[in-house]
Design a protein that fits this description.
The protein is of the alpha+beta class. The protein has 11 helices and 6 strands. The chain has helices spanning 30-52, 58-64, 68-99, 104-119, 122-130, 154-157, 160-185, 189-197, 202-232, 244-255, 258-287; strands spanning 3-9, 12-14, 138-142, 149-153, 293-297, 308-314. β3 (138-142) and β4 (149-153) form a beta hairpin. The radius of gyration is 28 Å and the shape is flat.
């Protein structure tokens, strides 16, 4: 554990600035001003052409921006994102634990799953699950070696919405398992040995030792995956799910306002991405701190006006 000596007076702690806390001052050079000028010129040109080009049809964009059809598609997009991300993360955690198992059959099955779902396109998987009834039109759920079973009509339950959730969740689980496994690998072997020396079971060690320490490595990548999932939901439009893109397509198929409706969908995706980026950045800053410090008095008896020596200890 690193210990940094500092001095504290009766008025408050006085700690030296660390290297990463010091403000960096860099002198401005001519090329910096040139880069700013070029960037401003490019942005100004894009804004000018977007405002002056009548083919964008901004009045049409604003008129359809908050229509009920678009808002309903927006809600379905958010529902798909949250549901698929939650199910994919839970299944990814199971796959990560299986992947790191010392039992070769268990780790082999997890590796086979990850290889398959990462090696095939998401669109192909969505179409496959939507047509799974062609392979298994009827299934039976029951107790093995008994006559207790319940027939299931796969064609009836595999609706476009169900196929979208199943396809996105299973695909997301493959990527989340690798993210979680990378976080597990970041935990040092000494932490495992310390937990085992305390007599912790495998589940207790996973819950109280491994998972809390993997958060700094998992959270940023998970946030990026969630933003990617938000945009991948647009693929479910090929299944007929009335998401944001499908809602825009249904409108411009009737009104022939293709570009304005695509702009509406793009703006909503951009807004949702920006909204999700704010908590992601806050969580990343919170978990990116490798150490948290606290002041511990080293001398408890000091006369009035005399400095009190303290130590700054790392709690991680």
């Amino acid at each position: 554990m690193d210990v940094i000596e500092t001095t504290t007076t009766r008025r408050g702690p006085v700690s030296p600035l660390r290297a990463e806390e010091k403000k960096r001052i860099t002198p401005k050079r001519p090329r910096d001003y040139v880069a700013w000028a070029v960037a401003i010129a490019i942005v100004a040109g894009l804004v000018w052409t977007a405002v002056t080009n009548e083919n964008y049809r901004w009045p049409v964009v604003f008129s359809y921006f908050t229509t009920q059809t678009i808002l309903n598609g927006l809600l379905i997009t958010l529902l798909l994102t949250v549901t698929s991300m939650a199910l994919g993360t839970l299944l990814g955690l199971v796959l990560a634990v299986m992947r790191m198992s010392h039992q070769r059959p268990v780790s082999g099955l997890a590796q086979l799953y990850i290889t398959f779902f990462r090696g095939t396109p998401v669109l192909v998987q969505l179409v496959f699950w939507f047509n799974i009834a062609a392979l298994y039109p009827n299934l039976s759920i029951g107790i093995p070696f008994t006559g207790i079973s319940t027939p299931v009509n796969v064609n009836a339950i595999m609706t476009p919405m169900t196929a979208a959730i199943v396809g996105l969740s299973l695909n997301q689980a493959a990527y989340m398992s690798e993210i979680i496994r990378g976080g597990f690998a970041a935990v040092s072997r000494g932490q495992h040995e310390a937990a085992e020396s305390l007599g912790m079971s495998a589940f207790t060690k996973l819950r109280h030792v491994i998972i809390p320490q993997t958060m700094p490595a998992i959270i940023p990548a998970t946030g990026n995956q969630m933003i990617g999932m938000l945009k991948e939901t647009s693929l479910v439009s090929v299944l007929g799910v009335a998401d944001l893109l499908q809602s825009a397509q249904a409108i411009y198929a009737r009104t022939y306002q293709t570009i304005p409706l695509l702009i509406v969908a793009s703006l909503w995706y951009l807004i949702m991405t920006l909204v999700l980026s704010v908590p992601q950045s806050m969580i990343e800053r919170r978990f990116s701190r490798s150490t948290r410090t606290r002041l511990t008095p080293a001398i408890t008896s000091a006369g009035p006006g005399q400095p009190v020596a303290t130590t700054r200890e790392s709690v991680l």
